[in-house]
Amino acid sequence: MPLFSFEGKSPKIHPTAFIAPTAVIVGDVTIEERASVWYNAVLRGDFNPIVVRRGANVQDCAVVHVTPRGGTEIGAGATVGHNSTIHAASLGEECLIGNGATVLDGARIGVRAMVAAGALVTPETEIPDGTLALGAPAKVRGPLAGTPAERWVRANPEGYQALAQRHKASVQPC
């Protein structure tokens, strides 16, 4: 896996985490236990830190970055979907960022909230706990509870932790 130090700061990866062999992790990045960073994802902690909390997953081709004013924190059990961009934002525990969504500087996504696929969360926007946000710019559409999307928010943390351990145990170049 490509891990790179930057200006004396090196990634810190918990031994139970899964980092895909094609993921790129640069600088001040911490990845906690049972978290996963998937194929072709890029996490670049050059200005400030990135923290991926326990059991969170950053899926294929996602980009996570920071600014000189702020870092990025991905809460425990959170999901960053395929092709998403997270830029100097804070993601709450077990939230789900849908495929291709963008979450920009200073945005805060609540616990078990969902940002729908393709949504654009503009700078400094707050998505409250347990809500569903969609659109560009993203707007809160109401509570997530009782919607079909709620199933994904509940299932993803455990499902991706199990899948990550399968990949960790068996992925081999061929």
Structural description of this entry:
- This protein is globular.
- Helices cover about 10% and strands about 35% of the residues.
- The model has no long low-confidence stretch (mean pLDDT about 95).
- With about 170 residues, the protein is mainly beta.
- The strands form two sheets. Strands 1, 2, 4, 6, 8, 9, 11, 12, 14, 15, 17 and 18 form a twelve-stranded parallel sheet that branches. The chain has an eight-stranded mixed sheet with strand order 3-5-7-10-13-16-19-20.
- The chain has one helix and 20 strands.
The number of helices is 1
Q: Sketch the topology as an H/E string, one letter per element.
A: EEEEEEEEEEEEEEEEEEEEH
Overall pLDDT metric: 96
**Helical percent range?**
10-25%
> What is the rounded distance between the termini?
16 Å
Tell me the radius of gyration. Answer: 15 Å
Oligomeric state of shown chains: single chain
Secondary-structure content class = mainly beta
Strand content: 35-45%
